[in-house]
Specification:
Length: 607
């Protein structure tokens, strides 16, 4: 009797053990429903646009002889393109005979006003109801002295070429009411001025030391918007530029993507064996135990707390092989790939490609940074290495479509790009970074569809640290694009430089603060994986809105519309009604609009 009971218990344990092993093997992957198949976007539709409507048009005037003028011009043009605002762009040498009254707003993107023969037509343009934006700090020349009073300036006293930091004096960046930092990454050349004490003047930004940086002043029926600085020639400040352009009218509506994404580069990836002294001291865990029981557990909790969808980008090994034969090293073992990959997918996440190893796909001489990377001899070698990685992932997740690629160290040559496309027929999106680097070897991107149909989807920010410089990048991108796109590396924790000597307990608190900030100020953002986000980005790229501003009614007509389309509306007025538009206020002067059909309207109350 006892023998039978013991045998029964052993049989139960054996069945449980077999079931557990099956759950950990590739048999289980056949039952994973997430194969990264997405529904095709619906066919776009276009609204009937009344033929008698005159839509706002902008004019940019620049000076090809000024480097700062040209640097600022390219960002003004790009921001207007993202805002889907119609514009003309002319050099001041070609501006003779321009009729300012043909435009709603004129933007000066040059420093020396004396290069204009006569500013009277532009002053009259404002007097009659137009908006004139000074996007670059003027130099103190005779023309500036003549018009400074019109600009709300009481007095001025030379230049401050090292005007650092920034201080918000009024709500400007949508979602952010206050931002005050004395940091080197915000630097301007500004005129030392004092503004008139006039209720018609509204100051939005100052340098940290109190020099007026951005203000608006009325002149009869129109307005001047003056940016007393030079920082708008940098890509990282496009959100400020978007806000400056938004001041050209009492109400401004422009499209956004409405996307929130978090990427984990090098995940799944080989996990170092052994012990890290700081981790052992803090958590009493080996490195693999720490990542499994602490780090990943915290990441899962964060995902649920802030509704995050992770996209993980796989790397098979950290070797330096760039010549065939390429073989599976086993450093990323199948069990870790299965366990972490399965849990990532079960969270609603996505698996993408990072690299066979961490050697950026670049030929000799391409990489300028001192990274110690080897160069690749040919596109064929790159393709073969990537095919090994793809084959390994498919050996675990057999039917999974690998649609996204992140280049190691965000470096990708034209040869490497061609190799990735050739090696992976499912490739749909490349995600690198938004900002260029000084060396010029980073694969920096705009939000766009490349001529070959690949979606270029840059990441804006990175790391676990909650710090002003990263948040500045985040706020600017959210104001221009409505996109939060952030990436991290699991092994940042093990690197004393990247972790800045902080423990995971400290880093995880900082990391939480980033998402707490986003949730507090931009809780309307929709969470996506990289492929889902790219699908939404196509809607943002292709939509062509026509905005009619009339009295207290805003009509939005769209070509290439697919539901839902999203917009930011900046206005100090309250909404009294709408049709085909849902709306949500998220600070005193900003709404996010959701357009449900190709035409909708908003009605505003009188102030």
């Amino acid at each position: 009797m006892l023998f039978k009971r013991i045998m029964s218990i052993l049989m139960v344990l054996l069945i449980v053990a077999i079931g557990f092993q099956i759950a950990r093997t590739f048999i289980f992957t056949r039952f994973i429903k997430n194969t990264n198949e997405l529904e095709e976007l619906p066919k776009s539709v276009s609204a009937a646009i009344p033929g008698d409507i005159v839509f706002n048009k902008y004019l940019i005037l620049s000076d090809a002889g000024e480097s700062n003028s040209i640097g600022t011009l390219k960002h003004i043009e790009k921001v207007l393109q993202y805002m889907k605002i119609d514009y003309d762009s002319l050099d001041i040498s070609d501006s003779t005979g321009i009729d300012p009254d043909e435009y709603y707003c004129i933007i000066f993107s040059f420093e020396s006003l004396d290069f204009m023969e006569d500013l009277t037509p532009y002053i009259d343009f404002v007097r009659k109801g137009g908006s004139l934006i000074f996007a670059v700090r003027p130099v103190i020349d005779p023309h500036f002295r003549e018009i400074s009073s019109f600009l709300g300036i009481d007095s001025f006293d030379g230049m401050e070429d090292d005007a650092r930091g920034i201080k918000a004096e009024a709500a400007l960046l949508a979602g952010i009411d206050e931002f005050k930092h004395d940091l080197d990454f915000i630097q301007n050349s500004s005129i030392n001025i004092k503004l008139k004490k006039d209720p018609n003047i509204r100051l939005y930004l100052s340098t940290f030391n109190g020099i007026p940086l951005l203000w608006q002043t009325g002149y009869e029926k129109g307005r001047f918007i003056i940016f007393n600085g030079t920082m708008l020639n940098e890509k990282n400040n496009r959100g400020i530029l978007t806000a400056v352009i938004s001041l050209s009218g009492d109400t401004m509506v422009y499209p956004i993507a409405n996307i929130k994404m978090v990427h984990i580069d090098d995940f799944p990836a080989p996990i170092p064996r052994g012990i890290d002294e700081s981790i052992m001291e803090e958590f009493n865990r080996t490195i693999p135990q720490f990542y499994r029981e602490i780090w990943w557990s915290d990441m899962v909790k964060l995902s649920k707390k802030y509704n995050l969808k992770y996209s993980g980008f796989v790397i098979e090994n950290y070797g330096d092989t760039v010549k065939p034969p390429f073989e599976m090293t086993g450093r990323l073992d199948e069990e870790n790939m299965l366990v972490y990959g399965k849990e990532l997918l079960n969270l609603g996440g996505e698996i993408g490609l990072h690299g066979y190893n961490h050697q950026s796909l670049a030929p000799e001489g391409f990489i300028k940074q001192d990274l110690g990377y080897n160069s690749w001899a040919s596109q064929e070698d790159m393709e073969e290495a990537m095919e090994i990685l793809i084959g390994f992932i498919h050996s675990v997740f057999r039917n999974y479509r690998l649609k996204a690629y992140v280049p190691p160290s965000n470096i990708l040559s034209d040869m490497g790009r061609a190799a990735i496309i050739a090696a992976n027929e499912d490739l749909a999106v490349i995600a690198s970074v938004y900002l260029p680097n000084l060396e010029g070897d980073i694969y920096h991107q705009e939000f766009e569809m490349a001529p070959d149909g690949i979606i270029e989807f840059p990441r804006i920010s990175s790391g676990y640290h909650y710090e002003p410089e990263e948040m500045w990048s985040i706020y600017n991108a959210l104001n221009t694009h409505g996109i939060f796109s952030h990436f991290i590396h699991p092994d940042d924790i093990l690197d004393p430089d990247r972790s800045r000597g902080q423990s995971w307990s400290e880093l995880s608190k900082d990391f939480d603060l980033i998402f707490e900030d986003i949730e507090r100020n931009y809780s309307w953002l929709n969470s996506y994986t990289i492929s889902e986000g790219a699908r939404e980005l196509i809607k943002y790229i292709e939509i062509v809105p026509y905005i009619e501003y009339s009295d207290n009614k805003i009509n939005i007509y769209c070509e290439n519309f697919r539901p839902d389309a999203y917009f930011i509306m900046r206005t100090s007025k309250d909404i009294s009604g709408s049709d085909n538009i849902e709306y949500r206020r998220f600070n005193d002067n900003s709404y996010v609009l959701t357009l449900k059909e190709s035409h909708g309207y908003i009605e505003l109350e009188d102030e």
